[in-house]
Protein: RNA helicase
Amino acid sequence: YGAPSNKELYIHRLGRTGRAGREGKGLLVLLPFEKKALKEIDLQRLICVNIEDHKDLMDKVDFAQNLVRSGHPFLTPNAEAAYLAFVAYYMTSKGMGSRDDVVDAAKVFAQIIGLPKLPDLWGKLQ
Structure:
């Protein structure tokens, strides 16, 4: 999770998309508060799009969110695990802001991934 903090880290993360001379594509998904990280990554070929401008993608997101909300046996527990990883990552990240900022961002993340309610973090951390 999290936007890469510099060009080198971004390239490192993309390393698996094109090995042994093969070409590949990478997708960097950012939440609104992470957009500032793009200024740190100076890449000429980086194309930024807003998913809300693409109805076909939004339809797929809506479908997946509905599956998570309905308690899908695979997607819902994985969405909860993603939420926990998100909180853990940003609670220990520098430059994210206060704990309240992390909590607010985590609530937005939970909505985006379709969680009907916030997972119990305390129970998951024990």
Remarks:
- Residues 4 and 10 are 5 Å apart (CA to CA).
- The mean pLDDT is 82.
- The radius of gyration is 16 Å.
